[in-house]
């Protein structure tokens, strides 16, 4: 599949054609396997998303949203994980992940994104993603919630001057007052 994607130059095809291609993928029966969907998520989107220096085009957002609608697990495991691990600020990538969390991902994938964030050292770049997850007002599993609270407590000194950290802690206290002591 990687060879076919390379041969078809899918990683560099125009974004309006990417939307069409994703539409065809959604119409396939039976559905793609997890592995095939993961390969396609990487081949179709990873290079484009990691190279963003300005907000994504409406075509790219439409393609991402349509692919996410059917193959969100492999999408999160490949693309979102790579964006979260990418060093540096990555402001456009972070905004994109937040937008996907807020508008496209199902609750199980929103929790997956949070668990991926909590596997990494917390940074300013990741705080808006956690905020977006909390904004979905999904009930977090106790173990994930406890890990989030523990991570935020441990990282507090590093974020003493961070407005994003303050917003996140305020959101936690507002949404989960009985669980946070």
Describe the structure.
The structure is a single chain. By secondary structure, the chain is mostly helical. It has a single domain (about 1-175), classed as Serine Threonine Protein Phosphatase 5, Tetratricopeptide repeat. It is built from ten helices and no strands. Helix 3 packs parallel to helix 5 (about 70-85) and helix 4 (about 60-70) packs across helix 5 (about 70-85). The mean pLDDT is about 90.
Short description:
By secondary structure, the protein is mainly α.
User: What is the N-to-C order of secondary-structure elements (H for helix, E for strand)?
Assistant: HHHHHHHHHH
Query: Span between N and C termini?
Result: 50 Å
Largest sheet report: none
Tally of extended strands?
A: 0
Compute the number of helices: 10
CATH classification, class level: Mainly Alpha
Topology readout:
Layout: H1 2-8, H2 15-27, H3 34-50, H4 58-70, H5 72-85, H6 91-103, H7 107-118, H8 127-135, H9 142-155, H10 163-175
Helix pairs in contact: 2-4, 3-5, 4-5, 5-7, 6-8, 7-9, 8-10
List key phrases describing it.
181 residues, mainly alpha, 69% helix
